[in-house]
Design brief:
By secondary structure, the protein is an alpha/beta fold. It has eleven helices and ten strands. It has helices at 2-9, 16-46, 72-84, 92-99, 119-124, 126-132, 155-163, 179-185, 187-194, 196-205, 223-232; strands spanning 58-60, 63-66, 87-89, 108-115, 137-140, 168-171, 213-215, 235-237, 244-246, 256-257. The longest helix has 31 residues, at 16-46.
Amino acid sequence: MRRGAAYARRPVTVPGAAGSRRSALSRRALLGRAGLLVAGHLLAVRRPARAQEPPAVSLDCPILMYHEVWDRARFARQIGGYLDRGYQPISLAQLARLLDDDVPLWGQPFLITFDDGLRSARDNALPFLADRQVPAVFAVMPDWRGDHVHTYMTNDDFQRLVHDYGMEVISHTFHHPNLVRERTRNPGSWQAQIVESRYRLEAIVGGDYTVEGFAYPFGAYDAPTVDLVAQHYRVALSTRPGTRQRSEERYILRRTSMS
């Protein structure tokens, strides 16, 4: 803009009326050009930036999957081996942030999960985890009365896992159904198993606790099931083998079976 104004103030060298008219035309042309430059600058400033796609994240993060834990010493050796090799134990919430490329690490991450809310995990794994201050995730069924085969934790146990031990609990539905079959057989139950189980579990734990994740019973899912889970959770655990976790697969994360 200053450049256009300087041109407009330059002395006119052509004498007479014609020179005056040329001068006026020159001023209008130059001022008009300056106005276009200013307008163009303002448009450039006001033009909204194009939204960028979040970067794709891929990381090597073993997610260990336990069910029954009968042998305390064996469990301690397994987890101790990861710790001794420099692995960093993380929470499910931290993994979700990692997949958003939003959390620093000091070592290679790994995650410990327990499916079904079995009491043996509480009795034989939790003491070691608490002693070593290692986080873990318990996929549980709120209000579950059991199957007359295994022994399960109670709602009170879920609350203590969070508030007394700093662990995470996530939904594993109400009754452990195969969700692919449940969707075709009873769509209302299918939806409740995924959605309402989360809110019931949050009410059991209390406080401001938020259930971040979901685990598919039997590892069974289809596209509609994954879509519904994605509407209500940040991440979900499958039973697909492998250790490579990708941001575009955050609702079918891979796990390594340990028991």
